Protein backbone atom coordinates (compact mmCIF):
# COMPACT_ATOMS: atom_id res chain seq x y z
CA UNK A 1 0.00 0.00 0.00
CA UNK A 2 2.79 2.41 0.93
CA UNK A 3 4.60 1.70 -2.35
CA UNK A 4 1.42 2.22 -4.38
CA UNK A 5 0.74 5.53 -2.66
CA UNK A 6 4.33 6.67 -3.21
CA UNK A 7 4.14 5.71 -6.90
CA UNK A 8 0.89 7.66 -7.28
CA UNK A 9 2.45 10.76 -5.68
CA UNK A 10 5.51 10.54 -7.92
CA UNK A 11 3.37 10.07 -11.03
CA UNK A 12 1.24 13.09 -10.08
CA UNK A 13 4.34 15.22 -9.59
CA UNK A 14 5.84 14.17 -12.92
CA UNK A 15 2.59 14.70 -14.82
CA UNK A 16 1.86 18.12 -13.31
CA UNK A 17 1.55 21.10 -15.62
CA UNK A 18 4.86 22.65 -16.74
CA UNK A 19 4.02 25.77 -14.72
CA UNK A 20 4.53 23.69 -11.59
CA UNK A 21 8.24 23.56 -12.45
CA UNK A 22 8.61 27.29 -13.05
CA UNK A 23 10.76 27.49 -9.91
CA UNK A 24 12.83 24.43 -10.83
CA UNK A 25 16.56 24.27 -10.30
CA UNK A 26 18.91 24.56 -13.25
CA UNK A 27 21.80 22.15 -13.51
CA UNK A 28 24.05 20.05 -15.72
CA UNK A 29 24.14 16.25 -15.74
CA UNK A 30 27.66 15.02 -14.93
CA UNK A 31 27.01 11.28 -14.46
CA UNK A 32 24.14 8.85 -15.08
CA UNK A 33 23.91 5.55 -13.17
CA UNK A 34 21.05 3.62 -14.78
CA UNK A 35 21.75 0.52 -12.70
CA UNK A 36 20.93 2.37 -9.47
CA UNK A 37 18.51 5.01 -10.86
CA UNK A 38 20.83 7.81 -9.78
CA UNK A 39 22.13 10.92 -11.49
CA UNK A 40 24.91 13.32 -10.52
CA UNK A 41 24.07 16.96 -11.19
CA UNK A 42 26.09 20.16 -10.91
CA UNK A 43 23.28 22.49 -9.83
CA UNK A 44 22.41 25.94 -8.61
CA UNK A 45 20.75 26.60 -5.24
CA UNK A 46 17.76 24.38 -4.44
CA UNK A 47 15.48 26.71 -2.49
CA UNK A 48 12.92 24.19 -1.22
CA UNK A 49 15.73 22.08 0.29
CA UNK A 50 17.66 25.13 1.56
CA UNK A 51 20.71 23.86 -0.32
CA UNK A 52 23.50 25.88 -1.88
CA UNK A 53 24.93 25.30 -5.36
CA UNK A 54 27.10 22.16 -5.61
CA UNK A 55 27.54 18.86 -7.43
CA UNK A 56 25.76 15.88 -5.91
CA UNK A 57 24.01 12.57 -6.51
CA UNK A 58 20.21 12.31 -6.60
CA UNK A 59 17.89 9.33 -6.68
CA UNK A 60 15.42 9.39 -9.59
CA UNK A 61 11.80 8.73 -8.58
CA UNK A 62 10.66 7.51 -12.01
CA UNK A 63 13.10 5.09 -13.73
CA UNK A 64 11.56 6.01 -17.12
CA UNK A 65 13.13 9.48 -16.73
CA UNK A 66 16.63 7.94 -16.83
CA UNK A 67 16.41 7.73 -20.65
CA UNK A 68 16.12 11.53 -20.81
CA UNK A 69 19.32 12.15 -18.81
CA UNK A 70 22.55 12.53 -20.79
CA UNK A 71 25.98 13.56 -19.49
CA UNK A 72 26.63 17.22 -20.32
CA UNK A 73 22.95 18.03 -20.87
CA UNK A 74 21.48 21.11 -19.19
CA UNK A 75 18.33 20.34 -17.19
CA UNK A 76 15.76 22.04 -15.02
CA UNK A 77 14.52 19.81 -12.22
CA UNK A 78 12.66 19.69 -8.95
CA UNK A 79 13.91 17.64 -6.03
CA UNK A 80 12.43 16.60 -2.71
CA UNK A 81 13.67 14.70 0.31
CA UNK A 82 11.76 11.38 0.20
CA UNK A 83 12.36 8.90 2.99
CA UNK A 84 15.61 10.72 3.76
CA UNK A 85 16.93 10.55 0.17
CA UNK A 86 17.32 13.51 -2.16
CA UNK A 87 15.12 12.54 -5.09
CA UNK A 88 14.37 14.11 -8.47
CA UNK A 89 10.59 14.36 -8.68
CA UNK A 90 10.22 16.55 -11.77
CA UNK A 91 12.19 17.15 -14.92
CA UNK A 92 11.62 19.75 -17.60
Describe the structure.
The chain is built from one helix and five strands. β4 and β5 form a beta hairpin. It has 92 residues and is an alpha+beta fold. The chain has a single domain (2-91), classed as Beta Barrel (OB fold (Dihydrolipoamide Acetyltransferase, E2P)), CATH 2.40.50.320.
Feature tags:
single chain, 92 residues, alpha+beta, OB fold (Dihydrolipoamide Acetyltransferase, E2P), five-stranded mixed β-barrel, 5 strands
Task: Briefly summarize what is shown.
This protein is α+β, with helices and mostly antiparallel strands and 92 residues long. The chain has one helix at residues 2-15, and strands spanning 25-33, 38-43, 54-60, 74-82, 85-91. The protein is globular and about 30 Å long.
Based on Cα principal axes, name the global outline. globular
CATH architecture grouping: Beta Barrel
Helix and strand element order: HEEEEE
Count of separate structural domains: 1
- Which residues sit in consecutive blocks of at least 5 with pLDDT less than 50? 14-22
Main beta-sheet annotation? 5 strands, mixed, barrel
Number of strands: 5
Question: Cα distance, first to last residue?
Answer: 29 Å
Q: What is the CA-atom radius of gyration, in angstroms?
A: 12 Å
Q: What would the CATH topology be?
A: OB fold (Dihydrolipoamide Acetyltransferase, E2P)
Report helical residue fraction: 10-25%
Strand order of the largest sheet: 1-2-3-5-4
Determine the mean pLDDT: 84
Q: Which CATH class applies here? A: Mainly Beta
Helix segment count?
1
Q: Structural class from helices and strands?
A: alpha+beta
Which superfamily, in CATH terms, is the homologous superfamily? Answer: Copper binding periplasmic protein CusF
Into which percentage range does the β-strand content fall?
35-45%
Amino acid sequence: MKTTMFAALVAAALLAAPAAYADGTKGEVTKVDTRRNRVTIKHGPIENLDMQAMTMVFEVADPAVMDKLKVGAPITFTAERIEGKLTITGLE
